[in-house]
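Appendix B: complex inputs.
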Amino acid sequence: MELTPGERGTGDGGRRDGRMRELGPLIRDLRRIVGRQHVLVEPEDVIVYEQDGSILQAMPEVVVVPGSTAEVREVVRATRAAGVPIVPRGSGTGLAGGAVPADGGVIVSLARLNCLREVDLRGRTAVVEPGVINADVTKGIAPQGFFYAPDPSSQAACSVGGNLANNSGGPHTLAYGVTTNHTLGVEVVLHDGAPLWLGGSVPDTPGYDLCGIFVGSEGTLGVVVQGIVRLMRARESVRTVLAVFDRMDDATRVVVDVTSAGIVPAALEMMDQTTIEAVERGAPVGFPRDAEAVLLVEVEGVREHTERALREIQDICRRDAARDVRVAQSEQERIALWKGRKGAFGALGTLAPNYYVMDGVVPRSRLPETMRKVAEIGRAFGVRIANVFHAGDGNLHPNILFDMRIPGELDRVIEAGAAILRACIDAGGSLTGEHGIGLEKKAYMSWVFTEADLDAMARVRRAFDPAAGFNPGKVFPSPPACGEPRRAPAKIPAGLWV
Amino acid sequence: MTVALPHLQIPELDQCVHCGLCLMQCPTYRVTHLETESPRGRIHLVRAAAEGRIAPTERFAEHLYLCLMCRACETACPSGVQFGRIAEAAREVLGPPGSRFSRAVAGLAFTRLFPHLGRLRLLVTMLRAYQRSGLRRLARYLPKRLREMEALLPPVPDRYFVPEAEVLPALGPRRARVALLSGCVMPLLFGEINEATVRVLRRNGCDVLIPKDQGCCAALNVHNGEMVAAKAMARRNIDVFLSAGVDAVVVNAAGCGATMKEYSHLLAGDPLYAEKAARFSALVRDASEFLSGLGLVPGLGRLEMTVTYQDPCHLAHGQKVRAQPRQLLAAIPGLTLVEMDASDRCCGSAGIYNITHPEMSQTLLAEKMVSIARTKAPAVVAPNPGCMLQLRSGVQRGGNGVTVYHLMDLLDRAYQLGEARP
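Resulting structure:
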């Protein structure tokens, strides 16, 4: 694992050449199916697909970018018939290495399947292809007063297909739920290229919820080629409060107090001082740099409700020692506040070349103590941590800042991350709120699931894909022979460098 | 093992955390849907070449040169990665784009033509003679590629911009003393816009200096990896304009303004010029930025028209100047601004890009013409000569009769109307 950048190469020259010769017939087939310009094989092309939004990287052998569902079917059939694994990819903004081809193989990018096929405002559904950008769904229907609720912070770039794979959430998950709550049906392509509809355009279909199994399966069951999603009616009134705190403890107390007062904000987000610093360095929105934490609270609904909730929230913030409580006075100001929040991850690049984001969840009531614990872990491991997260859901995102080029740094960071996740689980929480398990957290699956649980999941997977050739090496912990379960670095497959 | 290119290992690379938020803002990614043609992908390619993981091959160069350098990714980037600097550094290593022949032609143009405005003028005059003669009819016998390039040549007007004096005094009380970059192509192809700019500045109480010895800003050189001549041209302009002793150096071409604001970066490693370059760059203002800061004097007449506004990339993304041109438009009585969708997306002009990459350029232009048409405005304002040429060629092709204006054009007209009917 201790490879320095100069030694990494593009995939071991000679070995890659040999492998590419083996893949020759498949590459010819793929070119015939999608056209030459949509099949990438040269190192100077495929190397850009070795990464997603996470810190993990591995070189694919081939990248295919089909332009229709029919092409996807043929690509899947040809690739899997050749015994080559497939890694489906949306926009590659994932944070757990889900689109990183751990075992090489063929990346099937769905970026060109980006048609918003049907919008039924009366039925409040839309039929979307997987490559449609999340924000574009809302953009198309906003003038008519509708929106698509799942709003990951990367929504300006991430795809609906990627959201489906990861069952993504976002700041407004608190009020509206995650992707699965907004997905009625999916059309998928199975390992033999056969298409299959799961779910439908009505909210409840008889039998097992197979659509629900597909949502959040991280590309391990098949390739989604279209989905039917719910649309929601825009709320009459949306109000956003920025509360500034001198102490993190006070901010976390507000989260507990707001929710226990029976108020359900649409979003309740927190950023700590380090994150504020990053945002203000990158694309400043005017968050106070000397505050230990800020909360962004949004309420939606009919005007009478939002005004009352706004007052109650302001009262609670003041009671819990907020230094400043500010209500956005215009839509412009509201958008600016959210722009700061949604760009926070990307802005971490102003503080360090790399960040490792954790996605642990804890019960809200345990938030204050967990945040203290996270700070303690940062001190113990000597790492700098930036916190920006969905406080209302208890979904933490401690970002460990580091420089991968410093030898030994990555190991320390991964250990610190593991300690944070352990603390979340000990507090009665979970490994991931919305980013998925991917490559990154698969070693920790055994912390929350027994052998029997994992075996049941593996059998579900084999029911869809007997050879397990879709996105191999993800979600499930590798066999114990690969290394000790507690030491994450040793669990990362050889040839994969992070 | 491929050789590492350590001089490509520039600090900007470390700031990219590959979050992907740039993807959908990148015109070439939007068209191709390929990571290789995205800012994130290009940054990764440069990083990989710097580390010696890939060689700077022909394909590598294609990916870097398909970029329009519109810098929309810089606006989108939450980490403030200055992609333009990364691409410029990579292009410096690669040299000018294209085949050996076109590289040689481009190299000649960058080092022998643009630094010598007299030669450029001679060439444009020859072009004018060609356009006026019957020779033009023979163009259809040219090979397809050359024929397309010939069609892109703008008609050369009868009159060039020739200021009557080096200093033109303010009309009314003096409020500022400014120098104008008259430009390389601007005085030849857009002389009237320079004249309009001078009139608007003078009317707003500015003494306007137009130093004779100024040269081309070197934007084309910088964007095409030709840094030696670029630095020499920058040094010359710095000397000329700094010795003029002005409050601001006003530029009415967005691409030139962005480049001149970055002389400080271009010459940061030059011990003799680093400090002067910083001082110079701090003086550079786009004409709209300067006038909006100064505040327009009254006297604008009514201009009953509806326009839409195209943000030139190097104004909106390169200089972060978005509000000021709109403020000036709003100041014109009778004028209505209808915003188009994605007004800050590149029109495909991008310097010489429309010549080097006609296919991508035309795709982007076609989309832009649709956005303009959707506003139903009969006119579009684009305060940058490159965008104006491109949009005019789009109008010619599409034949929807939209008129393309420079912002200074409209301000000048409004003032003239105000004078006629006070």
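Chain B has a mean pLDDT of 92.
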